[in-house]
User: What shape does this take?
Amino acid sequence: MKLIKKIITAVAVCSAMASISSAMADEQYIPLLSYRVGPYAAGGSGFFGGAIDYFNFINAKGGINGVKISWEECETEYNASRGVECYERLKSKNGGASLVEPLSTGIAYGILDRLADDKIAMTTIGYGRSDAANGKVFPYVFPLVTSYWNQAAAMIKYLGDKSGGMDKLKGKKIVDLYHDSAFGKEPFPVFDALAKQYGFELIKVPVAHPGNEQQSQWLQIRKANPDYVILWGWGVMNAVSLKTAQRNGFPREKILGVWWAGSEEDVIPAGEAAKGYSTMTFNSPGNYPLLDDIRKSVYDAGKGNLDDKKRIGSVVHLRGVTAAILWTEAIRKAQDKYGKGHTMTSDQIRWGFENLNVDEARQKTLGVLGMFPPIKTSCDDHEGSGAVKVQEWTGDHWKAITPNWFVGDKALTRALIEESSAKYAAEKKITAACLK
Amino acid sequence: MFYREAGQFKTTYAEDNQIFPIKQDRIGIALLFVCAFIIAPLVAPSYVISAILIPFLIFSLAALGLNILTGYAGQLSLGTAAFMAVGAFASYNFVLRIPGMPLLLAFVLGGICASLVGMAFGLPSLRIRGFYLAAATLATQFFVVWCLTKISWFSNNSSSGVITAQEITILGFPFHTPASKYVLTLSIVVVLTLLAKNMVRSNIGRSWMAIRDMDVAAEVIGIRLMRTKMLAFAVSSFYCGIAGALYAYAYLGTVEPEAYNLDLSFRILFMVIIGGAGSILGAFLGSAFFILLPILLDFVTHGLALPTSVSSNLELMVFGGLIIFFLIVEPHGLARLWQITKEKCRLWPFPY
Assistant: This one.
C-alpha cells in the first residue's frame, strides 16, 4: 500500500512538473522527421545534424527574440508509411508543430494532403513537386531555394554557356542518364521543351533503382558519343556512374550531375574517377563565419550533433544549416508581424514563409553571405529564388566554378508550374487563391 | 476457467459450421467489433486512427491477400506491392476517366484489374514452383512499377508518375476526416475478411490447400490445377488490389509508383511469415507486429533518452532480433502462438 502511494505521488509530482515546464517555456517546437538508418542514412544524418547544430547555436545565443527552439526527432527510415506515422505522432506535441520537412519525396507526398487540414507548412528544399511553387494551389508547401525544374533549366543554360552560347547547342547531343523513378522523370518537361527550343538532341537513358550496374547504359552512351551527359542520379547510382564512365573512357568533365549527385558521399566512393566532375548545387561550398561560430559555441560545448567533426561544412550539412536558417528566418518574420518574443502558431509561420526575404545584407548579418542564393518569396512564388551554382570536385573538396548565382529559363518553368498546378487544382477541386 | 465450451451443444449443421463455434469467442469478437466500429472512431485520437489503425487495416488486407496465395495455395509471390499498385492506379483512372463513377465500384474494378494482372503473371506457376516461381513473380514487381512510371497515361500525364487520389465521396457523403476514412477501411476489410474466411473453409479453400500440400496428389483426386491456381492468383491479387487502392485513397492521398516497391512486397511477405502462413488471423497479427512494434520500440528507445543516432539503430537491431526469436520459438507464426494459448486456457487450471 505504501509503495502504491509512493508511486502515485511520484507520478503526480512528475506530471505536475511536466505541465509547469511546458507552460512556462516560450518555445517554438519543430518536429524533425529524420532518417539515420537505412540506405540514405549518410544524407539524413548530415542534413538533420546540420539543422540541429543550427538550433543549438540559436538557443545558445538566446533563441529567436528570446523564444528558444525545441525539437523532437522521429526515425522515418526514408519510408513513406513510417514518415506519415512520425508526422501524425509529432504534429500535435508540445503545443503543435511549427513546420515540417521530411527530406524524402515519398513522405512529402504522403503528408501533402494533410497539411491544409493541420495548417502546417512543409518545406521541400531542393526536391518534391516543382509545381508547388504556386502558392495559390499549394498554400502550405514551400519548395524553397530552387526546384527540379529550375535546376533542369539552369543545367541547360550552363551547358549552353559552356559551349559558347545558347545557339551553339544546336545539333549537340545531350544524354540524360536518369534514375528511373518519379524523381528521375521530374525534369522531362523542361528538357523536352528546351531541346525543341535550342535544337539539341536529347537522349534519355534510364537506370533502374538502385543502379549498381550500369555497363549497358554506358556502352549506349559511348556509342551515341554525346557532347554532355546529365547525371540525374540518386544514392549508390552516382558513384557507380562515375566509375563506369571511367572504365568506358568517357571524360568526366563532360558529366554534369544533379545536386543529389553532388555531395561528398557521392564522390568519395568513386575515388579518382570523380576528380574533375561537376554538379549543380544550391549551396556554395566553403567555410563561413557561421560555421566557425557553430564549431565554437556548439561543438566545443559538446553539443554537436555530428559524430565526425570533419563533416561540418560538408554539402549535406550545409543543406541542413541552410534549411534551419530559412525556418528560423520565417519564424522571425512571423514574429515581426504577430508579436516579438512569442511562440508563433503554425499558420503564422506559414505567413512567415510566404513573406520571407533573406537578401545579401541579411545573409551577412547571419554570417552566411553567399552560402545560398538570396531568397524572396511571395504567394505566387513559394520557391523564392531558383538560382544555382555549379561546383567541381577537386579530389578532396568541392569548389564552386561559377562565381555567381544563375538561373535558367524561368519563364518556361513558370509556365509549366502554372499548367501543372492548374491540373492538380482541377483534380482536387481546389480554387486557387492566396491565403491571408 | 472461463474459457470453456462445456455445455455448449451443437444441434444443427449451421451451428456446427459457424466461424466461431465457442460462445466466449463470439462474445469476444462482438466486443471487438463494438470497440472497432463505435468506440475507436469516437474516442481514439486522430494520430492513432490515421497513423496506426488505418495502415494496420490496409496492410492486414494485403497480407491476407498474399496469405491466400502463399499460405493456402502454396504459391510463393514477391509481387504483392505490384498488385497493390495496379489496384490503386486502376481505381484512380476509373474515377478520373468515367464521370460519375462510384468510388466503391472503382475499387472493385481496380481489384479486378489487379486480378487480371495477377492471373497473367500467375501463368508460370503452372510449370514452376517454389523459389523459381518467386523469381517469376519478382518480374511482376519490376514490370508493373516500370510500366506505371513509363506510360504517363496511367498517371494522367503527370511528368513524374505521381497520382493524387480524388476525394472519397460515397452516396454524397464525404469521407474526409480520419475517423470516417477509418470506418470505411474497416468496413471493407471486415467484408473481405469474412469472404476470405468462408472461401478457405469451403471447397475452393480445400482445393487450394490440397495443391499446397502436394499438387500431383491433388490432380489425381480430380482438382483442376490450372483453374485452381489461377483462381488463387486472381483472388489474392484482388485483395491486394483493394488494399493498394485503400493505401492511396484512405491513407497516403498522393502516391508515386515508387511507394509500391519491392521493399513493400517483402514487408508484406514477412508479415505473413511472422503472423502465420495459412491463417486468416495470422495476416492481422503479422501486420500488427510490423506496424506496432517499431513504434513501440521507438517510444522505448526515446524514453531511454539515448541520442537519436543510437536509438534509431538500436530499434532496428531489436526488431530484427525479435523476428528471429519469434521464428525460432514458433516457426508457424503468431497465429499458432495464439492457438496454443487458447488451448492452454481451455485446459486451465487442470492441464493433463
Observations:
- Confidence is low (pLDDT under 50) at residues 10-24 of chain A.
